[in-house]
Amino acid sequence: MADKKKKFMQGNEACVEGALYAGCMFYAGYPITPSTEIAEGMSVRLPKIGGKFIQMEDEIGGIAAALGGSLTGLKSLTATSGPGFSLKQECIGYACLAEIPLVIVNVMRGGPSTGYPTGPSQADIMQAKWGTHGDHPAISITPAYVQEILTETVRAFNLAEKYRTPVVVLYDEIVGHMREPIVIPEKGELEVIDRVKPDCKPEDYFPYDDKYEIPPLAPFGKGYRFHVTGLNHKKDGFPTNDSKIIEENNLRIMRKVENHKDDIWKNDEFMLGDAEVAVFSIGSTARSARFAVKQAREAGIKAGLLRPLTIWPFPDKAVTELSKKVKAIIVPEMNLGQMALEVQRVSKKAEVAGIHRVDGEPINPAQIFEQIKRFK
Amino acid sequence: MSSPTGGVVKKEKVSVPFDYNKYLRPNKLPHIWCPGCGHGIVLKAMLRAIHNAGLNKDNVCVISGIGCSSRTPGYVDFNTLHTLHGRALSFATGVKFANPKLKVIVVTGDGDALAIGGNHFIHTCRRNIDLTVLVFTNATYGMTGGQYSPTTPIGSQATTSRYGNIEPPFDACEMAKASGASFVARGTAYHTLELEKTIQEALEHKGTSVVDIIDACPTYFGRMNKFKGASQMMEEIEKDKTVSVKQVDKLPPEKVQGKMLRGVLHKVDRPEYCEQYETLVMEKAKAK
Ligand SMILES: Cc1ncc(C[n+]2csc(CCOP(=O)(O)OP(=O)(O)O)c2C)c(N)n1
Ligand code: SF4
Ligand SMILES: [Mg+2]
Hints:
The structure holds two protein chains of two kinds.
Chain A: H1 2-5, E1 6-10, H2 11-22, E2 24-29, H3 36-45, E3 52-55, H4 59-71, E4 75-80, H5 82-87, H6 89-98, E5 102-110, E6 116-120, H7 125-130, E7 140-141, H8 146-163, E8 166-172, H9 173-177, E9 179-183, E10 227-229, H10 243-258, H11 261-264, E11 267-270, E12 277-280, H12 283-298, E13 303-308, E14 310-312, H13 316-325, E15 328-333, H14 338-346, E16 351-356, H15 365-374
Parallel strand pairs in A: 2-3, 2-4, 4-5, 5-8, 7-8, 12-13, 12-15, 15-16
Antiparallel strand pairs in A: 1-9, 5-6, 7-14, 11-13
Helix pairs in contact in A: 2-3, 2-8, 4-6, 12-15
Chain B: H1 20-23, H2 39-52, E1 60-64, E2 79-82, H3 88-98, E3 103-109, H4 110-116, H5 118-127, E4 131-137, H6 172-179, E5 183-188, H7 192-204, E6 209-214, H8 218-224, H9 230-239, E7 242-244, H10 253-256, E8 260-267, H11 273-287
Parallel strand pairs in B: 1-2, 1-3, 3-4, 4-6, 5-6, 7-8
Antiparallel strand pairs in B: 5-8
Helix pairs in contact in B: 2-7, 4-5, 5-6
The structure holds thiamine diphosphate, iron/sulfur cluster and magnesium ion.
Residues 67, 109-111, 138, 140-142, 149 of chain B line the site of magnesium ion (MG).
């Protein structure tokens, strides 16, 4: 039985499975390496189940159409890589302020600019948080295994729907193109959350009603006839110049994430219990780190791994706690120190040491093991 | 009577008299537009056309980008979406494609549709997705204070062309037609009744219908180019510089030269995007 559901697939293909499992019925995007397999997969699968796939003329059109799809009530997805992720930023801010659920996948390749299209990176971590202008809530999910891309894509949709906000799934090219055996979960096995819709009369509906932490969202075309804008707005959705309301509008969207960090955070811990040296890492780099930790243990060094599956909001609590217990936190990442900076920000005692690589090659276990040895 | 993709198939005699309050959101007025701005006249024509087409308010979605013209959705009682500068057509494509039962109307400025959104404009027309696109062509960027736009005539003054504009203007209708829109028309704020009828015909057409609407920005284009006021602009630009497509053949060449054509300029039957997806893509995908 279980064998039947077992499949050998690529990370990007698992992303398609995850999106469909979550109930995604709308995809709009523009092809770009190394994310294209997601678009290709959705173009085959969606029309079979009555869903909609459209290839737009650019990435801005892709995310904008996906937001339009979401406003009609369909769970929507767009996927891209570095240059396309840059183009989508203005629309991500729109989704934050207009509170439109959406999942954006960014399969990270080498940058800046066209950079190294077929090479991996983890250099869009800060962009996922700060890419669009203005203060705004950010949720980013960082799977490291093909199986996890499936389950975490489902979780990304759940968070987007639950908190009425865009969610970014971030993984590097290695995980996106790696093939591994995975199990497709049965229906009902994973939690699937749908956005809350209003049950009040249309005349009583406020799309941004501050009596709710996360106001219900009506789909277009069901009699509610409400207004959506990217301008700061009142609870009825119409623009305002009232500074008090503008402030409250800006703060409320932040609180949706701020007040629910414990629900959004997710960490995987490996051999951390008695660890004296910790590694903090995501994606394919975390897989090397896990290997290095095992090597260290074999060499008698008490090493452990903290692997966040939610990178935004940053796992402050877990890192601060960890920093009180260990001598050092090693942060290997395929960028020049984006995560290390955050780890430093919240660390209380431990020394923070980065391992950085921007040559398009993965960080290997030996590199990490060398660092671990320094702190034994 | 709406067809599954929102195009009105049968014209029913509308006996209910037109009532502004039915279509406006009176508590969202006054609007932001300057006295004499042409955008309000276009709004009126749009509402009357929607009324005459017999559309149900719950099924109408009005989507705009950013600009003075793009403020229109806030004042009208439909499903309304005020998006980002240049992106109205992409959001609209998403809404229409996701729910083809909706009648989607895009309200956009000449800058919004033809400059920053120019690529979306071309590809929307190419797909021939069932949207009605109303381009408010006032030859300027009104919202940002009168910079030159892709429809500003050569030689004109703008806050960014103090020595006279040197960029040749676009003809939105030519571009729409060349890109594949199956309905292309032009109207002006001066010819209000004609505009109302043109918009209604656009609404009743299935496929991408584009109406280029020439209207005036007296505040910026007008003042900078020494017009005395809105009425002079309407006379000299909208009335004197356009000629109806119905009369053009009867007029001597000198009366036509340098003038823009008004009326329905192009109307063909071409497969509509959402229907193509449903009948070709979905059916084949399900059979496989
Ligand atoms: C990305 C972006 N660039 C620039 C602007 C500034 N901006 C707002 S409206 C506008 C021009 C509007 O002109 P048009 O579309 O012709 O509308 P009008 O105001 O003339 O009706 C510009 C440049 C913006 N809001 N967003
Ligand atoms: S600035 Fe021009 S386009 Fe804008 S409202 Fe005033 S007159 Fe109209
Ligand atoms: Mg304009």
